[in-house]
Design a protein that fits this description.
Blueprint (H helix, E strand, L loop, with lengths): L4 E7 L3 E8 L4 E8 L3 H4 L2 H16 L6 E8 L3 E2 L4 E5 L4 E4 L1 H9 L3 E5 H12 L8 E6 L3 E7 L2 E2 L32 H4 L1 H14 L5 H9 L4 H9 L3 H25 L3 E5 L7 H14 L2 H6 L1 E4 L6 H14 L2
Parallel strand pairs: 1-4, 4-8, 9-12, 12-13
Antiparallel strand pairs: 1-2, 2-3, 5-6, 6-7, 9-10, 10-11
Bound molecules: zinc ion.
């Protein structure tokens, strides 16, 4: 019998990542296409359908091999009908993604939020190691999150469950967040937040060191510069890493006290800092988590990188469309 393939799609603001994945979560083929954001993103679903057809043709495969599509979109999802409430990046508002993509592809479609499918991918094939109670936090330009309880994503009342990035970390006088609040975790622990904090410290103090030298040479520093300098024991960089991981550890501990997860997976560009990040977060997590909660929770760096989304999309197909 022909092996069936699941289609995972990770829809981002600049690229659409696609993959054919087998039922064991192994990627058979993966590729990407640019996201066409023109005309309020009206071409996106057609582009995805064409990309799938072209790839099948290229591989000389028939569409009957495909079970369906699991897609992650950058915005809150109405789980009842697969509509995207709003995806500011794409120009979508109350956009019927499931219906449009089903019409264009003639395949059944399951829709979820992009951070949520990344969490499912890590649960299935990545650092989650199959743990059914898991918190996934993605530290990139922003801070995304996905919470899995008993193997299921927490969507909440109107699709905003798992918005870990908007946990209030600095209640008074915090920096403005894209969501309209101030002091969100995202303003502290995203790459953007880390750069802001570093720049403030560099301009408001005159502590010398590796980070200062980079700043003087380049006129700016990146989040990676901060962690690299901290690894070289740069005093200012260590202070920044301590501040960032304090807030991350605190937020995760408070969240974990309500969920008692088995795994906490940290992904996104900032997570490339590796052990220095995990160890510092762990220290604060242990301080702020209920002892029994701390005992159960293993904190690890995500392992799937950019593939987490498409593998999570495939998981949705396997679990929602195959049984
Ligand atoms: Zn926010």
């Amino acid at each position: 019998m022909m092996e069936k393939w699941l289609v995972g799609v990770d829809l981002g603001g600049t690229t659409v990542k696609l993959a054919f994945v087998n039922i064991y979560g192994e990627i058979i083929h993966k590729w990407e296409i640019p996201t066409d954001r023109s005309e309020q993103g009206k071409n996106i679903t057609t582009d995805i359908a064409k990309a799938i057809d072209e790839k099948l043709r290229e591989l000389d495969e028939s569409k009957s091999r495909l079970v369906g599509i699991g897609i992650g979109a950058p915005g809150p999802v109405n789980m009842a009908n697969g509509e995207i409430y709003e995806a500011v990046n794409l120009g979508w508002k109350n956009y019927p993604l499931k219906d449009r993509l089903e019409v264009e592809t003639n395949l059944p479609v399951v829709v979820d939020n992009d951070a949520n499918i990344a969490a499912l991918g890590e649960m299935w094939k990545g650092a989650g190691g199959g743990a059914k109670n898991l918190i996934c936090v993605t530290l990139g330009t922003g801070v995304g999150g996905g919470i899995i309880v008993n193997g299921h994503i927490v969507h909440g009342a109107n699709g905003a469950g798992g918005e870990i990035g908007h946990i209030t970390s600095v209640p008074e006088g915090g920096a403005r967040c894209n969501c309209g609040k101030t002091g969100c975790l995202e303003t502290v622990a995203s790459a953007t937040g880390i750069v802001r904090i570093a720049t403030e410290k560099l301009t408001q103090t005159n502590v010398e060191g590796v980070l200062r030298t980079i700043y003087n040479e380049q006129g700016k520093v990146t989040a990676k510069d901060v962690f690299d300098a901290a690894k070289e024991q740069d005093a200012l960089a260590l202070e920044i890493v301590d501040y960032v991981t304090f807030h991350l550890g605190l937020a995760l501990a408070n969240l974990a006290n309500g969920l008692n997860p088995e795994k906490i997976v940290i992904g996104g560009g900032v997570s490339k800092a590796g052990s220095i990040l995990v160890e510092n977060v762990q220290t604060y997590f242990k301080r702020f988590a209920f002892p029994r909660v701390a005992e159960a929770a293993d904190i690890a760096i995500a392992t799937l990188g950019n593939d987490a989304g498409v593998i999570g999309g495939a998981w949705l197909v396997k679990t929602k469309l195959m049984s």
